[in-house]
Amino acid sequence: MKFPKVLWTCLWLISSGVSAAVSVSGDVRNPGLVELQPGARLLDVMRVAQPNPEGYWLAAAWLRQPLLEEQTRFKAGVLFDLKVLQRTALLLDRPSRAALALRLYEQVSHWPVTGRQVAVLDPISVEVGFALNSRVADGDSLIYPMRSDVVEVLGAVAEPCRLAYRAMQEARDYLQGCSPLADAEADYLWIIQPDGVTRRVGIAPWNRESGQVPAAGSKILVPVKNDDLSPPIPELNQQLAEFLATQLAGVVP
């Protein structure tokens, strides 16, 4: 009876000393696997990897394997809602809306499930306590991409656009270079900042919000109109924005 207890105790002691391996890539001095002791945190990884002090930390991404299953289900839900939108639009004789829903369905189908955890990965903010110094786990990845000089506009537009970033330019002004379709929701946009933070912004005369400026590498989602259908899908655009937020903001060198 004592042997199993002793055996489990030994196994626990052995496993408690196993290190975690976190992958770091992109604009850092020491890319590769970082071996850490259990209980290690983000700052421990950053100190070893040494992100470029002049790098674009706002676009850094933390990828976590435990989030993959949850985000896979979330993606499936977004695809389901887009398929419902397409079928409803066909039933109500809205062919352009149905075509847009199908195009978005195909686009989302190709977006990868990343396991991205929204977090501030600025080493200085983490070190001084302005950002959470969360624990990391075996299999996590940190990616520090190069700075992007574009803003992407997606959603209810004729074609996705990659526009030159302009400092302090309002989100709505980017639509001058990427005109929305007639099937776009006219009153709002969604901004997905490079750090994965999303925000719905009013752009109509009655709800216009000033000071909503996308950072370099941001994505702007032009929402799809669906409140004129029966039944409507009120959470579709928010879900699209939230899944977009899991995508990486730039290409890792």
Describe this protein's structure.
The protein folds into two domains: 19-65 and 115-147, Ubiquitin-like (UB roll) (Roll), CATH 3.10.20; 66-114 and 148-246, Outer membrane lipoprotein wza fold like, CATH 3.10.560. A hairpin with a 5-residue loop joins strand 1 and strand 2 (32-36). It has 253 residues and is an alpha+beta fold. The protein has helices at 2-16, 42-49, 68-91, 95-110, 123-128, 236-244, and strands at 20-26, 32-36, 61-63, 116-117, 141-144, 150-155, 161-164, 188-192, 198-202, 219-222. Helix 3 (68-91) runs antiparallel to helix 4 (95-110). 33% of the residues are buried. The strands form two sheets. Strands 2-1-5-3-4 form a five-stranded mixed beta sheet, with helices on one face. It has a five-stranded mixed beta sheet with strand order 7-6-10-8-9, with helices on one face. The protein starts with a helix and ends in a 9-residue tail after the last helix.
